[in-house]
Amino acid sequence: MAMDEKDKDTLKITNQFRAKGGMAYDLKCKGTRITLLVTPRTTPDDEGDWRVEARSNTTPDDSIVVTGWGPTRMEALRAAGRSSTASSNLMMFDWDAVAAVLSSVRAV
After folding, report:
1. How many Å separate Cα 1 from the centre of its chain?
2. Minimal CB count within 10 Å: which of 28, 39, 62, 101?
3. Tens of pLDDT, residues 16-28
């Protein structure tokens, strides 16, 4: 039983799918869920080669979105993590752990 409680608190990918020309990843930790959308540059005016959008999914009205751009998917993820400081829902995530989980499935 204790193992089940620990598993609920472990950061994990709960879903991954193609979306908007890239890949979306639903992550969950301690009962809180975020969705990351990883997409490549689509126009010459984009701020970087890769974009990571992080969206909290508490309620549709309370959804918070942060975006990070970078020359690599990892750098874009780190930029999104730095942008999350304004949101308590997104701040609760350990962005190094998010990077490790996404690296395990070659997402970044």
Report:
1. 29
2. 62
3. 999 989 999 999 9
Q: Where are the alpha helices (DSSP H) in the chain?
A: 2-9, 73-83, 88-91, 95-104
Q: Tell how strand 12-19 and strand 22-29 pair up.
A: antiparallel
Q: DSSP 3-state assignment of 105?
A: coil
Q: What is the largest CA-CA distance in the chain?
A: 53
CB atoms within 10 A of CB 51: 23
Strand pairing partners for 24?
17, 37
pLDDT digits (tens, 9 = 90+) for 29-60: 888 888 999 999 999 898 899 999 998 866 56
